[in-house]
């Protein structure tokens, strides 16, 4: 083996290391609960998978970061949290699905949208999403999942979630989300966010001080950049002056749950007539996972097997 290959090994390993994680905390004598995340590796993984434009990457990166933080509040490992956005803008549909194991997957219907910057010179995520609504689905394994749907406030996602927490959960909250790209490589160099929530026992003084803090903090990605992508330091900055007590740290990652059986279930749900039409065409069926892009191929003999289970016997 050439020496350079051996020398490259640790470097490659280091580059593949996942440093994304979230932290939870309480502050001001339990008047405040807080959670923060650094998610640049998983957002970069999604960006690379579908060659996302910066605006598409920023939108889905913000959504996945929020979903991971909210997913941490789910009780059971099999529970899932889904945030869907349907907007009239060019990005159209976005979905992020998470759980409390720190896993997330995300989908953007139009990955190559490009728009000029907004009035403040930033990526115009709100403009790319446009008017529309946000749906939050908590599937706790019961007969019907909990579904909340609200109109979008700005399409900037953090603001929309703040509105959601106030309206649907009656919890005053502050949400910050951000994704930043390297200007030259277009790779994600910082991504993450925070959610601060006021508990019912919060006094007026705490509210006023928190509002003051929120007015004075820089953007999420600026805070991540100057603090080495540390969500702990992000919270220390947002909640400066409050007694911050960290509770836990948890690794988070991109993970798609697609598999061979998922496509089989879709094919099984087709009618006999539709399946026979596939056989007539004589070509194997190809299906792509809309989250990770992985391709699954189902041969004609697999289609015949599905038909046989439906009581239709066909000749090769
Ligand atoms: Zn997949």
> Quaternary state, please?
single chain
Describe the largest sheet. Answer: 6 strands, mixed
Question: What is the top-level CATH class of the largest domain?
Answer: Alpha Beta
Mean pLDDT equals 92
Distance between the termini: 50 Å
The string of secondary-structure elements, in order, is HEEHHEEEHEEHEEHHHEEHHEEH
Estimated share of beta-strand residues: 25-35%
CATH homologous superfamily title of the largest domain: Hsp33 domain
* C-alpha-based Rg, rounded: 22 Å
CATH topology title of the largest domain: Hsp33 domain
- Helix segment count? 11
Number of extended strands:
13
Main β-sheet, spatial strand arrangement: 7-6-3-4-5-11
The coarse silhouette is elongated
The number of distinct structural domains comes to 2
Class of secondary structure makeup: alpha+beta
**Helical content class:** 25-40%
Q: List the bound ligands.
A: zinc ion
Second rung of CATH, namely the architecture of the largest domain: 3-Layer(bab) Sandwich
Low-confidence parts lasting 5 or more residues at pLDDT below 50?
1-15
